Amino acid sequence: MNIIQGKVWKFGDDVDTDAIIPARYLNTSDPLELAKHCMEDADIEFAGKVKVGDIIVAGKNFGCGSSREHAPIAIKAAGVACIIAPTFARIFYRNAFNTGLMILESAEASLAIEAGHEVVINPAAGTIKDLTIGKQFTARPIPEFMQKLLDDGGLIEHWRNRLSIEIFT
């Protein structure tokens, strides 16, 4: 797993899937089209200003609401490298890994890190360093099998890789 460094976008508690990708845009499954409207109802400027490698830091229960996979797909397609929150809605948690979007659970980091801070994440070590304030935090470790999903780019790519290895060996 690679080291991630980026600027932080901060959101509060209970950011639901309608705020992440409003239902009015669910007539497409094109990731790039979804990215244009990512977080639109939470921050109208987000999609136009987020940069590849940026990081979302949010409050508890991020991704609550419906079970739509469009939400993590939109976030990933917008360029977000990782989301840090104390907790995630369980269906969002699983959908994030299935689509290859890294998420980390850390209540300490979520409270201390602010919008605009520069953060370095070492997913393998489970560390989050806020370069702006010079503090380091620990995240809940990602289980090894879920790290493999992220490394492969999500569940579909993971199985594609496994099947091609098994077929050709």
Write the element-wise H/E pattern from the N-terminal end onward. EHHHEHEHEHEEEHH
Class by helix and strand content? alpha/beta
Mean pLDDT: 92
Radius of gyration: 15 Å
The tally of helices reads 8
Structure description:
It is a single chain. The chain is an alpha/beta fold. 36% of the residues lie in helices and 18% in strands. The chain has helices spanning 17-20, 31-35, 46-49, 70-77, 90-99, 107-112, 144-152, 155-168, and strands at 4-10, 55-57, 82-85, 102-105, 118-122, 127-130, 135-138. Strands 4-3-2-1-5-6-7 form a 7-stranded mixed β-sheet. Strand 6 and strand 7 (135-138) form a beta hairpin. Helix 4 (70-77) crosses helix 5 and helix 7 packs across helix 8 (155-168). The longest helix has 14 residues, at 155-168. The mean pLDDT is 92.
Secondary structure elements and their pairing?
Elements: E1 4-10, H1 17-20, H2 31-35, H3 46-49, E2 55-57, H4 70-77, E3 82-85, H5 90-99, E4 102-105, H6 107-112, E5 118-122, E6 127-130, E7 135-138, H7 144-152, H8 155-168
Parallel strand pairs: 1-2, 2-3, 3-4
Antiparallel strand pairs: 1-5, 5-6, 6-7
List keywords for this structure.
8 helices; 7-stranded mixed β-sheet; 169 residues; 7 strands; alpha/beta
Task: Describe what is shown at a glance.
This protein is α/β, with parallel strands linked by helices and 169 residues long. It is 36% helix and 18% strand.
